[in-house]
Amino acid sequence: MVAGESGLGKSTLINSLFLTDLYKDRKLLNAEERINQTVEIIKHTVDIEEKGVKLKLTIVDTPGFGDAVNNTESWKAITDYIDQQFEQYFRDESGLNRKNIQDNRVHCCLYFIPPFGHGLRPVDVEFMKALQDKVNVVPLISKADCLTPAEMRKMKDRVREEIEKFGIKVYQFPDCDSDEDEEFKQQDRELKESTPFAVIGSNTIVEVKGQRVRGRLYPWGIVEVENQSHCDFVKLRTMLIRSHMHDLKDITCDVHYENYRAQCIQQMTSKLTQDNRVESPIPILPLSTPDVETEKLIKMKDEELRRMQEMLQKMQQQMHEQDL
Amino acid sequence: MCLDTELCEQPASFAMIFCSEEMRTLSLNGHVGFDSLPDQLVSKSVSQGFSFNILCVGETGIGKSTLMSTLFNTSFENEEASHFQNEVHLRPRTYNLQESNVDLQLTIVDTVGFGDQVNKEESYKPIVDYIDAQFENFLEEELKIKRSLYNYHDSRIHICLYFIAPTGHSLKSLDLVTMKKLDSKVNVIPIIAKADTISKSELQKFKIKIMSELVSNGVQIYQFPTDDEAVAEINSSMNAHLPFAVIGSSEEVKIGNKMVRARQYPWGVVQVENESHCDFVKLREMLIRVNMLDLREQTHARHYELYRRCKLEEMGFKDTDPDSEPFSLQETYVAKRREFIGELQLKEEQMRQMFVNKVKETEAELKEKERELHERFEMLKRTHQEEKRNLEEKRRDLEEEMNTFNRRKVAAETLQSLQGSSAIKKDKEKKT
To answer: Of A7, A195, A199, B66, whose CA is between 20 and 30 Å from B225?
Structure first.
């Protein structure tokens, strides 16, 4: 999933990451149309193959996030979507035929932080806090060609500080085993120290020293996307696709999904003990939205029961008094 | 000086012809010397000094302070603002600059916290309020009885630089809303900040998109004036480059053998004053070297006049009567005063009424209370009397009992004494 304000280079980055062109015919909204924009969720699914290994990639885009003038609750649509995917998986898992479960759960959320400010903004903090328990949040500093190396270091330190200050739980790289070789450990350390990654995306190919690479052409120089000294794009790609893809999936499965499942089941059982309806069978699947009609019926029956109980009590009392 | 009263009563056009006939152009026979008037003006203005007020509107961290430092080639010390302000507030700072014996009193007003809140619907209000407040101050000074406009420090905003974030797509919704609110109050010049993020081709598209959005939404940004021939050409060519894409820098880098303001990247060096890198030089030219005076005049002649007109109309002043005869200010004043006194009297009446009502109410309450007290008193008296009667009865009963008891006692005593005496008699009889 990619999230962030418009114009931060999300689509360009996705294209660069997977070397495809997903966003060919996009229609961008004008400013006046965006004043009261609501957040939409758009899914793009591609099947890519490399050396016989197939990957079904789903990119979930969130156009409209942060665009409106009033952005309170703009992350609700996104959290709802993530919950929906979890719910879908939950039902599939508890169903009868479990062979072909499609895993549509969101494994990773790339959050784009604008480089124009001095660090995190309130909307960034709120969004990441809302999502930290549902999905692996990977913050990125977008459009990194806006900051000089010194400014970049300051910005990264700032963002890391603020993440700690606000207690945001972003995705942490797993520590490598102690019996791995030094080079690997070194790589791992470097990786961890350069979070959040500062990335640049590009849709155009430029020629640098006889080579054709993805880059951005400026009058004062050429920024190469895959040059490690220019930006952290390579690190991000390595992390996302080559080394940590499995870890992201595992954490989604083991941590976030289990949290959701536990919460769900707890909710179900607490509802049951409230209702006192022992005669009904324990539902296996959580009924997320019971029909309005059945709810009404249930309420009516509850009322009747209560009334009958009261009458019973009264009669008992009367009998008691009569006995006396 | 003109004509006698008879002629003045004739229709205005007639008098006009007379007047124009009076003014004839004559040629001079020698050098008089009033061609030094412009020089006198210049020396007076220089000694008086100039004031210029800039308002910078833009998100936190977008480079407002850096650009100001670059523009005026000094460093205005400004701490970085935090992103977590609850609302927008404005921070005016005044500096005195001097360049070859011309004094400039520069006021830079910064918007702190703009664009940071989650709900930005009220973001434009503090800015509009500030601008209006400056106009209000000036208006007040103008309307004072003892005024000193000569020495008045003009704090009205002459220009608003609106910093657009370089997303590359279009304006943000917040930008559009804010600029619409500001365009009728101040000269707005939009600029694209941090322009080193956008490549040349993207920049072209971005500028066109921005201008078309501004036009389609009816936002009136400041156009450089093209009436004065001296600057018309350069101004009209600059108008085509709006909005300017600028870069600011507080650091200097050595290029060739000069130290220039620039930003150093691993892939190259962006020079601020290089025309092919960004439009900074254009902005400086336009803003300071060519059109500064025009900006001040526009502020006074257009924006301030608009404000003044609205304000005075609000207060009830009109230029023409319903009968479309020119109103004199004096009559308006007198009429207003009468109105005001009338209102005051009404209010007085109302207050008096209220007072009287209140008095009546309290009187009624007091009477009620009196009556109640009376009643209670009566009741108490009655109970008291009853009790007294009861007590009397009881006393009488008690007395009767006592009497009966006494009688019995007496009777018993006499009986005893009789018995006693009879016993003695018996004894006596026995003895004899």
So the answer is: B66
Instruction: Nearest by CB to A117, from B59, B171, B274: name it.
Output: B59
Partner residue facing A116 (CB), from B120, B194, B269: B194
Indicate yes or no: CB of A70 within 8 angstroms of CB of B120: yes
Dihedral sign from CA coordinates of A252, A254, A255, A257: positive
Q: What is the ipTM of this complex?
A: 0.72
- Closest of B306, B279, B295 to residue B196, by C-alpha: B279
Q: Please report which helix (H) or strand (E) contains residue A226, including its range.
A: none
- Record the tokens describing residue A264, joined without a space: 């769900």
CB A59: neighbour CB atoms within 10 A? Answer: 20
Amino acid at site A190? E
DSSP code of residue A31: T
B12 to chain A, closest Cα gap in Å: 52
Please report the number of interchain residue pairs, chain A to chain B, with beta-carbon separation below 8 angstroms: 131
Give the residue among B161, B156, B194 at the shortest CA–CA distance from B175.
B161
Q: Residue A194 pLDDT > 80, yes or no?
A: no
Average model confidence (pLDDT) across chain B: 82
Residue A18 near residue A77, CB atoms below 8 Å: no
Query: DSSP letter string over B77-119?
Result: --PPPPS--SS-EEEEEEEEEEETTEEEEEEEEEEETTTTSSB
Strand A221-224's sheet: what is its strand order? A205-208, A211-218, A221-224
Q: Which residues of chain B fall below pLDDT 70?
A: 1-21, 78, 316-329, 430-432
| Cis preceding-peptide flag for A174 (omega within 30 of 0) | no
**Contact across the interface for A224 and B270, Cβ inside 8 Å:** no
A60 in Cβ contact with A111 (< 8 Å) = no
Long-range own/partner contacts, residues A214-218 (CB < 8 A, 24 or more apart): A214/A16, A216/A145, A216/B199, A217/B199, A217/B200, A218/B196, A218/B199, A218/B200, A218/B267, A218/B268, A218/B270
Closest CA to B272 of B293, B258, B291: B258
Q: Which residues of A touch B (CB under 8 A)?
A: 5-8, 28, 30-32, 34-35, 37, 67-72, 114, 116-123, 126, 143, 145-146, 148-149, 216-224, 229-230
CA distances from B274 to B130, B199, B221, B332 (A): 36, 15, 26, 59
Closest CA to A286 of A271, A274, A268: A268
Residue B179 · residue A20 · CB < 8 Å: no
Q: What is the least distance, in Å, from the CA of A66 to any CA of chain B? A: 8
DSSP string, B226-249: -SSHHHHHHHHHHHTTPSEE----
pLDDT tens digits for A123-148? 888 888 888 888 888 888 888 888 88
Distances in whole angstroms, Cα of residue A268 to Cα of each of A263, A282, B311: 9, 9, 64
Q: How far apart are CA A182 and CA A168, in angstroms?
A: 31
Type and span of the H or E element at A259: helix A258-275
Residue A13: φ, ψ to 5°? -65, -40
State pLDDT tens for residues B387-420. 999 999 999 999 999 999 999 988 888 888 888 7
Residue A70: list chain B partners with CB under 8 A: 118-121
- CA distances in angstroms from B275 to A121, B36, B114, B246, listed in the order given: 33, 39, 30, 10
